[in-house]
């Protein structure tokens, strides 16, 4: 229809890094890394069933891992403008949303760019700040129209001039997300041009030819090749016109043969193309020639008005065509707070569909969709849906060896969700105590939000390592951290991201003991030295680690790598609604913005009360107490002027230290670290006092220093 109206004991059997026990070998008694763990007084417990499992082991190296993670992160500037939170309202028209364009549908393919075509930046996929803060679900108003900006009118006018100038028999339509967002009253810079009789690259060449004739600026054209084996069916041309990114793609029709699961692609009608789109709300067109909205499925406008995520064809058909659309359904439901059609819920758990998601879709495409979920306004809703669709293994555990997956408890996904929900509870209590609900969306960058949420979700897997294939047990055995593997291999995110998530979790464990305090244990005295050393290790990530330290202390949050068991009550609680205290004067919580997608009813008693309400109350009480502790630590750090302490340089340079002590070689590092410790304890001390201190301790340090063996 054309509508031109404007309308366990678990099982890793893994030990935490730095433990002095091992499943396959005994750590050297002379290891220089063990004392760091011993100081925390941590006792590791190993499930008896896994004490002889050769594929798992614990290793030393906690301190060195912290340093390595921090060094990798230090090489990237925290203030990189393209990584900061950008509201889609505030984004200038030339900026691209981090959400994958509807034409590309998260191809994950390399873009072959010609000429001077620049690489487009990535920005946060987060809804309008006002909507997020008010936890408001925005649907299409009756009679809504597409209102183009002056810049868009200029672009569309140029494209129509190209058609007229070269007498091209083509109808120009804007497809998908731009139309959807315009009808919702939102800003969008994601312009995908659908062509009915030309390939995108061919039309792009004509656009540049026209601009050149007019003496206007032109740019190179990039081409994203189709890849049917990976369910990427469309060749997409990408270019900039008047400073705005455009994707150009032809309308398609598909024919399947009995001999092949790969469809034969042909030019199709707008109706054919609309029914092959992922969702009805993304199947709408804006006809530039006629200046009207077209709804060829007959469902897109209604679903946009009702707030429903639905597929144009039966979901199973749509998902088998491109299984990534399961994840896209989840992302859009959590992004807008829309309800999922019941048929999608059923098809998403279909065994064949999930197998196709694992075998047909590249990990890069999966990782992009997960990133879009975490950068959206309601990452908790997205992760909840993934768990309810039994997609945890398919999305996060694909790189685990069978020896590890066979030992994971069947409820590990719910344990991860409970950990993330505990972060939600802590963040909500922090926001309410500060009287500012925007901490998570405004004070943290896009990257920091991703790292924090993913760290909380993967916390139960922290501390686990598995033996790399082809590396037999022995001194040179290679072990791979589980969390690092999920981020780097299962999601194909950057090494920087994997290092950041690992650093946050590892430092959080130490902050839990040193700054947050364990339940029932006496809290060590808060000193400038202790806090300063932790901040120097974590650098810009220290606040994330501090919050995660509180999360690790929340009831029911476990670390399977330490031999902890998932608690049944926490698993059941995770299957129900979120437990966080609602944000003051708004609905929802920091990670669960919309109640419509926070599925889970839970079992109710005869009185109508949730049977697990007592457990939820326990979570809220703990979150309130621990968030207060986080604020106390933040206040103490501010009072001691420690924020940014990682930039502090030794008051004496290397030459002066060498001249004073006569030391050379690796021991210089030890002397420098002692000098930094002194500076932390004596912030008002000068060079003379520092010289006197170093002179008093250097002889003993140099005399006792034993150079570590090569390769240690």
Question: What do you see in this structure?
Answer:
By secondary structure, the protein is an alpha+beta fold. The chain has an eight-stranded mixed beta sheet. The protein has a two-stranded antiparallel sheet with strand order 7-8. The protein has a two-stranded parallel sheet with strand order 11-12. A hairpin with a 4-residue loop joins strand 9 and strand 10. It starts with 33 loop residues before the first helix and ends in an 8-residue tail after the last helix. About 20% of the residues have low confidence.
In short:
Helix content is 44%, strand content 8%. Strand 7 and strand 8 form a beta hairpin.
Q: Cα-atom Rg, whole angstroms?
A: 28 Å
The total count of helices amounts to 28
Helix-and-strand structural type: alpha+beta
Report the uncertain regions. Answer: 5-123, 257-261, 596-610
Q: Looking at the structure, what is the overall shape?
A: globular
What does the secondary structure layout of this molecule look like, with pairings?
Layout: H1 34-38, H2 62-74, E1 112-113, H3 129-134, H4 150-165, E2 172-175, H5 177-183, E3 191-195, H6 200-213, E4 222-224, E5 236-241, E6 244-250, E7 252-257, E8 260-267, H7 270-275, E9 285-287, E10 292-294, H8 300-306, E11 308-309, H9 315-321, H10 325-336, E12 339-340, H11 342-348, H12 351-360, H13 363-375, H14 379-388, H15 392-396, H16 402-405, H17 412-434, H18 439-443, H19 446-458, E13 465-467, E14 479-481, H20 482-490, H21 495-516, H22 528-538, H23 542-552, H24 568-574, H25 613-639, H26 654-661, H27 667-681, H28 687-704
Parallel strand pairs: 3-6, 11-12
Antiparallel strand pairs: 1-4, 2-3, 2-9, 4-5, 5-6, 7-8, 9-10, 13-14
Helix pairs in contact: 2-21, 10-13, 10-14, 14-17, 17-19, 17-23, 17-24, 17-25, 19-21, 19-23, 20-21, 21-22, 21-23, 22-27, 23-25, 27-28
């Amino acid at each position: 229809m054309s509508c031109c109206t404007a309308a366990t004991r678990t099982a890793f059997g893994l030990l935490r890094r730095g433990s002095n026990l091992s499943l396959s070998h005994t750590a050297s008694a002379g290891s220089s890394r063990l004392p760091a763990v011993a100081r925390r007084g941590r006792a590791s417990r190993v499930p008896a069933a896994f004490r002889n499992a050769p594929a798992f082991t614990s290793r030393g190296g906690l301190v060195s891992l912290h340093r390595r993670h921090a060094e990798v992160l230090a090489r990237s500037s925290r203030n990189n403008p393209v990584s900061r939170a950008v509201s889609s309202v505030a984004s200038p028209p030339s900026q691209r949303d981090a959400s994958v364009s509807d034409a590309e549908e998260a191809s994950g393919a390399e873009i072959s760019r010609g000429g001077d075509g620049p690489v487009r930046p990535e920005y946060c996929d987060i809804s309008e700040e006002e909507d997020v803060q008010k936890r408001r679900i925005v649907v299409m108003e009756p009679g809504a129209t597409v209102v183009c900006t002056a810049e868009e009118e200029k672009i569309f006018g140029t494209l129509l001039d190209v058609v007229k100038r070269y007498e091209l028999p083509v109808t120009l339509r804007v497809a998908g997300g731009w139309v959807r967002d315009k009808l919702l009253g939102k800003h969008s810079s994601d312009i995908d041009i659908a062509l009915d009789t030309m390939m995108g690259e061919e039309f792009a060449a004509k656009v540049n030819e026209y601009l050149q004739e007019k003496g206007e600026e032109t740019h190179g054209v990039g081409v994203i090749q189709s890849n049917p084996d990976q369910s990427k069916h469309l060749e997409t041309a990408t270019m900039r016109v008047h400073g705005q990114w455009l994707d150009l793609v032809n309308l398609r029709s598909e024919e399947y043969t009995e001999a092949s699961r790969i469809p034969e692609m042909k030019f199709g009608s707008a109706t054919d193309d609309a029914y092959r789109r992922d969702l009805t709300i993304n199947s709408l067109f804006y006809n530039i020639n006629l200046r009207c909205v077209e709804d060829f499925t007959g469902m897109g406008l209604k679903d946009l008005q009702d707030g429903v995520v639905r597929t144009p064809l039966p979901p199973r058909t749509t998902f088998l065509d491109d299984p990534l659309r399961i994840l896209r359904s989840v992302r859009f439901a959590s992004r807008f707070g829309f309800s999922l059609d019941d048929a999608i819920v059923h098809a998403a758990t279909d065994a064949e569909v999930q197998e196709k998601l694992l075998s047909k879709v590249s990990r890069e495409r999966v990782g992009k969709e997960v990133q879009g979920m975490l950068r959206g306004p309601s990452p908790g809703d997205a992760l909840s849906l993934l768990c309810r669709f039994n997609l945890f293994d398919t999305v996060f555990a694909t790189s685990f060896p069978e020896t590890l997956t066979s030992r994971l408890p069947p409820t590990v996904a719910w344990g991860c969700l409970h950990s993330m929900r505990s972060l939600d509870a802590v963040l909500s209590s922090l926001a309410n105590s500060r009287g500012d609900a925007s901490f998570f969306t405004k004070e943290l960058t896009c990257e920091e939000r991703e790292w924090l949420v993913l760290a909380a979700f993967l916390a139960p897997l922290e501390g686990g390592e598995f033996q790399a294939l082809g590396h037999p047990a022995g001194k040179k055995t290679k072990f791979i951290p589980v969390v690092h593997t999920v981020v780097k291999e299962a999601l194909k995110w950057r090494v920087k991201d994997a290092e950041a998530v690992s650093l946050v979790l590892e430092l959080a464990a130490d902050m839990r003991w040193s700054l947050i305090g364990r339940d029932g244990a006496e809290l060590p005295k808060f000193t400038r030295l202790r806090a300063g050393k932790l901040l120097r290790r974590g650098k810009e990530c220290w606040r994330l680690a501090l919050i995660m330290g509180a999360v690790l202390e929340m009831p029911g949050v476990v670390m399977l790598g330490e031999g902890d068991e998932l608690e049944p009550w926490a698993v059941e609680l995770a299957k129900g609604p979120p437990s966080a205290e609602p944000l003051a004067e708004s609905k929802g919580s920091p990670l669960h913005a919309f109640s419509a997608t926070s599925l889970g009813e839970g079992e109710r008693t005869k009185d109508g009360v949730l049977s697990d309400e007592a457990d939820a109350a326990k979570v809220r009480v703990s979150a309130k107490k621990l968030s207060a502790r986080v604020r106390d630590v933040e206040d103490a750090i501010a009072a001691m002027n420690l924020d940014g302490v990682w930039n502090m340089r030794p008051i004496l340079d290397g030459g002066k230290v060498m001249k004073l002590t006569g030391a050379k070689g690796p021991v210089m590092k030890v002397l420098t670290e002692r000098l930094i410790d002194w500076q932390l304890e004596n912030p008002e001390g000068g060079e003379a006092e520092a010289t006197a201190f170093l002179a008093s301790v250097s002889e003993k340090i140099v005399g006792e220093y034993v150079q570590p063996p090569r390769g240690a």
